[in-house]
Amino acid sequence: MADWEANVRRVVPYTPGEQPKRNDIIKLNTNECPYPPAPGVAKALLEFEADKLRLYPDPAALELREAIAAAVSIPEHPVAADQVFVGVGSDDVLALAFLTFFNSKKPILFPDITYSFYDVWADLYGIPYRTPELDERFRLKKADYLTENGGIIFPNPNAPTGLMENLDTIEEIVAKNPDSVVIVDEAYVDFGGVSALPLVDKYENLLIVQTFSKSRALAGMRIGFAIGQKKLISYLNDVKFSFNSYTMNRLTIACGKACVEDRGYFQEITGKIVATREWTKQKLAELGFTFPDSKANFIFATHKTVPAQELFENLKTAGIYVRYFKKPRIDNYLRITVGTQAEMERLVEVLAELVK
Amino acid sequence: MADWEANVRRVVPYTPGEQPKRNDIIKLNTNECPYPPAPGVAKALLEFEADKLRLYPDPAALELREAIAAAVSIPEHPVAADQVFVGVGSDDVLALAFLTFFNSKKPILFPDITYSFYDVWADLYGIPYRTPELDERFRLKKADYLTENGGIIFPNPNAPTGLMENLDTIEEIVAKNPDSVVIVDEAYVDFGGVSALPLVDKYENLLIVQTFSKSRALAGMRIGFAIGQKKLISYLNDVKFSFNSYTMNRLTIACGKACVEDRGYFQEITGKIVATREWTKQKLAELGFTFPDSKANFIFATHKTVPAQELFENLKTAGIYVRYFKKPRIDNYLRITVGTQAEMERLVEVLAELVK
């Protein structure tokens, strides 16, 4: 080892799902939206003047934050632009939120089965953590989150299970942890889940994180956001402006704004995905699969006789990519993104052969 | 203070230059390029299929890294794609490089007068640092960088002075610090400077950072990159993939590639900026200004009688934005970005009145 290597931070990075270069596959492995982004995005692109790219973007991305605030506001719970933080995908938002809010010597808490980036961020920053076990039905045990901690984070619906915890449970966790920031990662909330957004007015230690990558069909554009009370958001902004001032580029701001403004299209595509998910659940059950009752755009399924890893490999051979995690307790499950109805019909057809 | 605030990381963020929403000003305050990006960028935008934005981008941004490698390679010193790291502007690259390489208890070193983000990153991560004084002519004193340290960083040309250190000085600093990573921040190297890229083959502890925001006219797109030996780059990638896997969006990859491939246009616009800079220097000297001999796309100028802050305010009133730093040793200087020839003629005209 060279001398300079002694000072290098060594980490085991997160492994993203495969992004195959082939176009002839059915891609159900990274929870993307099977439908194109709102038509306004193509229009925004077409109307964008390339010459403007010579100038820095607005570091505050105000237009985008205003559009997001308007989109998530409901009459009883309006959200202001200064309650919105934006980042380069929700991973950027979460990475900065860990750095900002989980700055204690006490362990942070997140479930043993959850988004596999949480422990990576904790390791990167040297944040201690504990991972309370979900119960045998993959449910969060509330009592685990009422013990001393330096912060709490969980997705709702959870990934990769798709299970939704109810708002009462979340409110109790937030209310009983006044000395911790509680982050609810709602990447998958728009597929029939219930957002904790109405709790934001009441709790200054609650941060909600959402993304444009799933329900808004813009994974390729990299936009995530967080909502919280002004003070919480201002701390996050201070850290962000100490890391990188200009993260949202001019095209991202223009396209993100156009995307989030089209509420009708958003409801149309999320509605279609939910319908296809429910259809797929029924077919998978008929084929001998069981799965938690997902409220997300994926189904986490296990088969009564055929091992998940074998199905994973055989599906890949058949040109269908799904996600398989070789991890304790979930190594006999497949996480299958809900694609178009036609894609799911093809999946069911291939699975019917594979489990015969 | 609420209980949860005890765990919050408190920082004093970097203050970027003003990005006024008005279009009727002459903007010489953030070192942007006065010319539009290469024509291929508009073409890439026009040809881009918006539907593809539903899918995640290539997390490795391989096409962009290959294009950058080709653009910076010279026959005697070829650069491979796995020697290139890309980020959301060079600030993202630098923020991650600080986190990756400056992980020692010893202080890192950078000049007292330099890019004002370095101390912000050091504070953010809790990295100790020392800031050796530049000499009275704003020259780096080599001996200061041959003392014990946990890492070294400086821009070359330096900001905001524009002064270029020669390659022999840089090589000696790199060679005599085998147990530190030395980062040479070459944001402004393309305006007549000499890059340290040829030293990369020889020193595995040398990281060169460059940007698309100045000489490549893409500040609004957010692209920066680093070049080093494979091993150094792989450490940086590990930390990057522990922070945010997908940073470069699909449009950034497509437009960045088109931009960097047009070598002729790049030479044309940097050549024009250098010519305008030299013309401006002569005119400023005639008006009683003095300045270091900038090799960057800005001039760091002080007037023999009129205070810089007064000029700064009066220029703003006249619709010309330049940068003023209220900091020790440089609070009587203006940093003036080199704009188009017409913009600089207008600047000189207004300054002639202001210093009369």
Helix and strand layout, with pairings?
2 copies of one chain form a homodimer.
Chain A: E1 26-27, H1 39-47, H2 62-72, E2 84-87, H3 89-101, E3 108-109, H4 118-125, E4 129-130, E5 152-155, H5 167-175, E6 182-185, E7 206-211, E8 224-227, H6 230-240, H7 250-261, H8 263-286, E9 289-290, E10 298-303, H9 308-317, E11 320-321, E12 334-337, H10 341-354
Parallel strand pairs in A: 1-11, 3-4, 5-6, 6-7
Antiparallel strand pairs in A: 2-8, 7-8, 9-10, 10-12
Helix pairs in contact in A: 1-7, 2-7, 3-6, 8-10
GO molecular function, one term (chains A, B): pyridoxal phosphate binding
Subunit structure (chains A, B): Homodimer.
Organism (chains A, B): Gallintestinimicrobium propionicum
Quaternary state of the chains: homodimer
Question: Secondary-structure element sequence of chain A?
Answer: EHHEHEHEEHEEEHHHEEHEEH
CATH class of the largest domain in chain A: Alpha Beta
Q: According to CATH, what is the topology of the largest domain in chain A?
A: Aspartate Aminotransferase, domain 2
Report the radius of gyration of chain A as a whole number of Å. 21 Å
Strand percentage of chain A, roughly? 5-15%
* Greatest chain-chain contact: A-B, 87 and 86 residues
- The CATH superfamily of the largest domain in chain A is known as Type I PLP-dependent aspartate aminotransferase-like (Major domain)
End-to-end CA span of chain A: 53 Å
On the 0-100 scale, what is the average pLDDT of chain A?
96
Low-confidence stretches of chain A: none
Helix content of chain A: 25-40%
Question: How many strands appear in the DSSP assignment of chain A?
Answer: 12
How many separate helices of chain A? Answer: 10
Structural classification of chain A: alpha/beta
Looking at the structure, what is the overall shape of chain A? Answer: globular
Question: What can be said about the biggest beta sheet of chain A?
Answer: 5 strands, mixed
User: At CATH's second level, what is the architecture of the largest domain in chain A?
Assistant: 3-Layer(aba) Sandwich
Q: Which strand order spans the largest sheet of chain A, edge to edge or round the barrel?
A: 2-8-7-6-5
Organism (chains A, B): Gallintestinimicrobium propionicum
GO biological process, one term (chains A, B): L-histidine biosynthetic process
Catalytic activity (chains A, B): L-histidinol phosphate + 2-oxoglutarate = 3-(imidazol-4-yl)-2-oxopropyl phosphate + L-glutamate
Protein name (chains A, B): Histidinol-phosphate aminotransferase
